[in-house]
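cron nightly-structures :: item 1 of 1
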Amino acid sequence: MQAFVLLLIIAPSLYALKCYNYLSSSENKKPSKTWVNCPVEAQYCFKNYSNEKVSSVWLSERACGTPNLCTVRSC
């Protein structure tokens, strides 16, 4: 019984989604990637891309998406 309860606690974290933040620039030859653990209710990662023309820096980010994200932000 204790093993079953332990499995119920651990199982959701095994299937948890991970998204990443990705930072790169024209001068940086090794871009940095940082992983983010999503909450259990997240079902997908969505991409956000921003570019700053003055310093040639761009940020590519994949944030955690929940099922009601598009109804809140009107995708």
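cron nightly-structures :: done
The chain has one domain: 2-73.
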